[in-house]
Amino acid sequence: MNTSPIRIAGAAVATAALLATAAPAQAAPETDEFASYVENVYESSGVPGLSAVVTKGDEIVYSGGHGRDSDGDPVTPDTPMRIASVSKSFTAMAVMILVEEGKIDLDGPVADQLPEFTMDDPRADDITVRQLLDQTSGLNEITIGMSDIADAATLEEFTAGLKHGELGSDPGAEWDYSDANYDIAARLVEVVSGQRFHDFMTAEVFQPLGMENSGVDDEAVDPKLGHNSWYGLWKARTEPYVTDDRGSGGVITSANDMGRWLATQNGGGTRLVGPESLETMHAPSDVEEYGMGWVVQDDGTLGHSGNLGTFNAYEWIDPETGYGVAVMSNGASLADVSWEAAQGLRQITEGEDAPDASSPFLMDIGLGLAAIASLALGATGVVRSGRWAAKRGGKSKWVTALRFVRILTPTALAVAYPAIVSLLSNGRDITWSSTFYHAFPLTVTLLVAGTAGAAVAAARLVRLVR
């Protein structure tokens, strides 16, 4: 950019000052507005449990919980849940604490500070700690073979498993979202601090903030089981992804604890690092609007989602107004209810009317009906395959072939399903087993449609050959 950042900052400050003097102060939303909206989202979505918190500066202005956990106990603002990739902002904080102590060089090569981090790709020697945190290291989950090391028992084992991988791009050249970045960062915290990652987080982050229901180990903090929607019926299931003690997605916490976290991220409450470090974490990289565990949005606010097989979460802060929002759900489906609820709460903090809560159950019903229709059409097609073959006598072979292509399209989509999802997920390795969790209804419907198409095609081919 040709415009000086100093000029941009000066203009922004001047504009804000003018607006502050010209416009009347906006009335703060009432707590009842937040409570009513969260209750509406819970009832409309049908998720097993939902908790949320809204902060303003140092204060929690709303926190609440609805529903039940997998043991049947009520979900409250103190119920621990997994927050998945929302954990990344916590890991970034751990690193910045050590940066301020002079124990980690943010712009120094990772390999110099973590000698066990070695890769056959020589470019890995140039990856800096900052590039891990803003996801510009060049690590790509396909080229590093993430699926082969995702179940590593420890961060040390995980880091060692990267040795034979390759980078997807030069360090600093491109943005590529990868959990590996934050697991390496967590291992760096362990080595530099001399403590297990969970122990460091507990001593340096959770305890100072008073986050009593938080941890990075489900033996220390029990989040119970999450759930999946089976066409609108919620089933408690064991979380398929190994996340304990991981910097990429291991944090377990509650709504009230997240309130304390949001306050410190907005520069209030108990401060873990200075203002400059917060600004560093919240600033985007040169190649993507992504900070250190935060997605930097066009309006200057920051957010990050977290999605596992059975849990969803979302956090959002507005450094200008001091508002913060976090939502967690112990049910994962095709619709991310935590994201929707957080966006609605955000709108309320901005003085807008609460949006209407949607119902993901309608999507499940639609997919269920599609599966039933596919079964019916498939059965009909098999039964009538003889009549169909008789009508094809004398018809062009090309026309017949095109009809087979049409019939087998659902089958091709079903076979390619994991690969398509991987492509749409920025190259992340999606396995068949993972598609049977939050996307269960879609997966089953695609398989039913694909099987029905294959059965009809096979029956018609047999009749044609005869």
Automatic annotation (TrEMBL):
| Cited Pfam families | Beta-lactamase
Q: Where are the transmembrane segments?
A: 361-383, 404-424, 436-462
One GO MF annotation is:
hydrolase activity
Q: Which residues form the signal peptide?
A: 1-27
Which branch of life, at top level?
A: Bacteria
Q: Give residue ranges for domain Beta-lactamase-related.
A: 35-334
Question: Which InterPro entries is this protein grouped with?
Answer: AmpC-like, Beta-lactam-related, Beta-lactam/transpept-like
User: Which EC number(s) does the record attach to this protein?
Assistant: 3.-.-.-
Quick check: keyword Secreted in the entry? no
Keyword Ion transport recorded: no
* Gene3D superfamilies for this protein: DD-peptidase/beta-lactamase superfamily
Question: What keywords is this UniProt entry annotated with?
Answer: Hydrolase, Membrane, Signal, Transmembrane, Transmembrane helix
Q: Which residues form a coiled coil?
A: none
Q: What is this protein called?
A: Serine hydrolase domain-containing protein
Species per Swiss-Prot/TrEMBL record: Salininema proteolyticum
